[in-house]
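Before surveying the methods themselves, let us examine one representative protein, pairing a chain with its fold in token form.
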Amino acid sequence: MKFTPKGNRIQAIAVCITLSISALVFFAFSTITDTLASTILNTLGVVLVMLTTLVVTRYLSFTYTYILDDFEFIIINRTINKEYTVCRLYYSDISDICKAKTAKKLEKGVKKHNYSLSVYSNELYYLFVECGNDKEVIVFEPDAFFAKALEKRIKNDIILN
């Protein structure tokens, strides 16, 4: 079973436009004076340009595909001309799955991997993973049907072991 979230590209584009316009305003005001304030405004403009680049590369340049295999949960990252696996977990390594809204506050020191496409999403799920002594959290955004299928496979794997 495969699922590729659509993501909310409009949110990411709106954030990019807002950051770009703000950077242009800072650059414009920095040219008016030649004081410390202009240097600060210029620096803020550069920071906003870097944030825009970060948002474009993180939320607009690629997609994720979630795959439920016989024994593994796989996440594939796709760009325009490349495809590579970023996460491969046995169901026995996954301890729990729940919606991000209902999840308890994460412990400090827990490594968090975000494989979602939306800047702001209400449909995020947390996948709690135990790898040896380490606890990690995978954040992803499947639909409800895919999440139920994954939960069923996790529970069946726990029962079999």
Q: What stands out?
A: The beta strands are 2-3, 63-68, 72-78, 83-90, 94-99, 111-115, 125-131, 134-140. The mean pLDDT is 86. The CA atoms of residues 112 and 137 lie 5 Å apart.
